Amino acid sequence: MRKFILKYLIPRIIQFLTIIFVGITVTYIIPRLAPTDPVEAQISTMMAMGSSLDPASIESMRAALTDLYGLSGSPVEQYFTFWGRLLRGDLGPSLDNFPTPVSKMIGQALPYTLRLLIPAVIISFIFGNLFGAMSSYYPKNKALKVIEVLGQVVRSIPYYIVAIVLLVTFSYFIPIFPFSGAYPIGTRPDWSSLEFILKNLEHAVLPAATLILVGFGGWFVGMKSLTSNIISEDYVVYVETAGLSKNRILIHYIIRTAILPQFTALAMVLGTVFSGALIMEVVFGYPGIGSLAIRAIYSNDYSMIMGITIYSIIGVAVAVFLMDLLYPLFDPRVRYQ
Amino acid sequence: MTLLSVKNLRAYYRTEVYGISRTVQAVDGVSFDLLPNEIYGVAGESSCGKTTLIKVISGNTKPPLKVLEGSVNYNFNDYKVDMLHISQDELRQNVRWKEISYVMQGSMSVLNPVRKVIETFRDIVDTHERITDKKKFLEQTRAHVNRLGLPTDVLNAYPHQLSGGMRQRVAIALATVFQPALIIADEPTTALDVVVQRGVLQMIREIQTTSGNTVLLVTHDMAVHANVADRVMIMYAGRIAEEAPTETIFDAPLHPYTQHLIHSLPMIGEKSTKASLKGAPPNLADPPGGCRFHPRCPYVMDVCRTKVPDLISVKERHRVACHLVEEGAL
Amino acid sequence: MILLSYNSPYDPGKSFVVPWDLPPSQEHLFGTTSRGQDLFWWLTFAVRNSLFLGVLTAIISRIIAILIGLTAGYRGGWLDRVLMSLNDTFVVLPLLPILILLGFLLRDRMNLFYLAVILGLFGWPFDARLIRSQVLSLKERSFTRTAVYSGTSAFWITINEHLPFVLPIVFATTINNILWSIGMEVTLSVLGLSDLTTPTLGTALFWANQHGALVAGVWWWIAAPALVTIVLFLGLYLLFTSINEFIDPRTRLRLIGG
Ligand SMILES: Nc1ncnc2c1ncn2[C@@H]1O[C@H](COP(=O)(O)OP(=O)(O)OP(=O)(O)O)[C@@H](O)[C@H]1O
Ligand code: SF4
Ligand SMILES: [Mg+2]
Fold first, then answer.
1. Which residue ranges form the domains of chain A, and what is each CATH number?
2. Crossing angle, helix A10-33 and helix A75-88, to 10 degrees?
3. DSSP string, A242-267
4. What's the complex ipTM?
5. Residue A97 vs residues A57, A101, A233, A292, A299: alpha-carbon distances, Å
6. C191 vs A294: CB contact, 8 Å cut-off?
7. Which residues line ligand 1 (CB under 6 A)?
8. pTM, full prediction
9. Cα–chain-centroid distance for residue A70?
10. For each successive 10 residues of chain A (337 residues), what is the average pLDDT?
């Protein structure tokens, strides 16, 4: 057990802290490298865009911005104030929806993103791996070959394009799915009404399909190359000579071992998948973090973008860390070192 | 009565890489019989076709390996099996593990790294005799493992927690759960240190004497054969060079290759290394014509280069394939 | 298409040179946009620029990947651990929000060149890891050990003995990286965070969205760039997989008798 803590746990914790540290430091440095004074630039763009704010709130906004960018004091002091604010979970008010705190708005949008992202990741992970393993175990199966080609195609194309193609095909040319949003325009979110939930599901089909399709291809290809080595491993050949049924071999011997590196890969791609989810929301006008981000871009809401960046980094780091913690449950070799 | 009768077996590997096809003549005209209740050793240097021979007779022929000619017939107490024509279903249901079990080469890695040993037992037993009573299965497995002198703890271990020797014994225990008529063991002692080797051999011999089945023991290590085998077959380049009871092989070998093998065994108290054979073992993708041993044989004659020597019986239970013997010079 | 762009009858910077909103026809192969541009010719520029971006990104990130991969693999020890930890961090970080932040701050100064540099700075970690593992396996091979015993300096061993084996990997991953970079550009442009005056595959889609192309029924404005992107990606991807098979390090190691 001590060895497990020393050899497995401690490195993961260090890695977790490194991700947060590097990520946050990068977000800290970026605005400081920008060639303009962000506060004034911000205020002037907002004025130019015709914000009807009275001088008092402009003043308070200027103060908020200076504080937000952490521009008072020496760089070292600024760096520590920056961290201090983060640890308190205080990311300042949204500039667009002044003075609603950024954290609150993100908190409202996050469930939408997660409700879509988590099932999509799970579904594509399960099916991608299952079909990938099957296609290397049954190399002659025609249907699996077709799936493989489709998977490869979709996988190579960026999220955005997949989303656009689905959108154009299924809500423009063949309008069977709604065009955008998470529920029909004019309805209020009401999670106790079955009708509303069904509508929400209907709106979620295309966005989820995008995430699932792209993810599926990735897992499929990864699993196929992993299992193509495993099917010639001694322990697989052995149970074949022992006459075990193909299904049992596929599940308990091939997938069971090949899935382990895939778990690690899942942790590795979480960041990318999350980014993909943001894009997909933009395409489908789905009201999650991605839509929040694009609105912030259009309205020059710097604090919101900053907040989204920071929360994304922390969120992904935590997710990766949790997966690392769960991993030993699946791999006895790590558990009993 | 014979347990297994192999006649004129020819099995080649046909591979195609970048459009160039290659044929490896791994088993080329092999005939022999296995008797009930014996330990039959197969010896020969690396890549002479030992594993290939086993794959074919155990019903594990898969591309690129292909049987071109010959027959492999079993007789398990009047249950007759033609291994080259049996259906996959029958093979799985009635033959594998019940009549023939196979301890693969490198069987230290035959255990699934992420499953407990007992799970592998369960899978195998359940495949051949549905497990209905879990308790009974556990009891029987524990008893079986105990009988073979293994601690029952191994059942709850993961493979990486066991030593190499222990894993090898677990593999043998797995092979013997149904008391099969034939146990095939491919290099079971290779890669183990001497003390562990002795334990594993002891185990094999005990299993054989108590249950009276037949063991086909493949290893390139002549010392192992000297210790456990009743009869030994010497393979060279995909063919049988000589076959005889163990004492005959070691005391009066006839084939020049066998003689070389025996003489190069280290003797107790001996310091100098023995003279090795000149030349390399032949490439089975392009073997020499005639007697395949001729490029390295110290007694080579003209006829050896062109004519394949027949495997002839010199005495009862002693067969040799060499022109010297055919001509009565030896 | 790239070659065609030099031949274009229209200047991509100008708008309203042809009648707007025409569907695809003989004269205007992919139709025209609401900004009065011929989509086909406009896209020829877009492909050229996108590819340029991709290649530049790939070059920059390849240099970083080689440096880090070789150093980590060859030096090993704590340096390796630190570099790989950093490497994994960059793999895991959600890139898009960071790029959004960057793009947001640089907005008006953004151009293809900056974008390539930025993407290059983020695009190395996967390949650095690959290179490192290749170096590690090469290190076990005898010629490295011989070189070490004969006192050749670490630097020269790395350059002379390892680089030749690492380069094919770099080559194979280049295409992947180009694809990644073009994809990122599409993403950022659609969000309005790149230099929107340069025709690229991404800006094509951005302008189409800005003009509500789908709502207005100008579907070809979206379909054409999407189609071109798909074709481009598929082509490059197929090239990538075939190159990969051809210079799979395993095949190569077998060839040198490893
Ligand atoms: N799957 C395969 N494809 C092509 N050739 C093969 C294959 N397996 C074995 N061979 C070739 O067949 C020949 C016999 O191999 P085999 O494994 O039967 O030898 P062996 O006597 O068991 O050797 P060892 O003592 O090393 O286990 C060798 O030349 C080998 O290269
Ligand atoms: S047949 Fe000839 S070459 Fe072959 S072993 Fe006998 S003497 Fe040697
Ligand atoms: Mg063998």
1. 109-330 (1.10.3720.10)
2. 120
3. TT--HHHIIIIIIIHHHHHHHHHHHH
4. 0.79
5. 12, 8, 60, 12, 10
6. yes
7. B 13, 15, 24, 26, 44, 46-52, 64, 105, 220, 284
8. 0.80
9. 28
10. 78 88 84 66 63 68 67 72 77 71 85 89 93 90 87 80 83 70 63 72 83 88 86 87 88 91 86 86 85 84 84 88 87 75
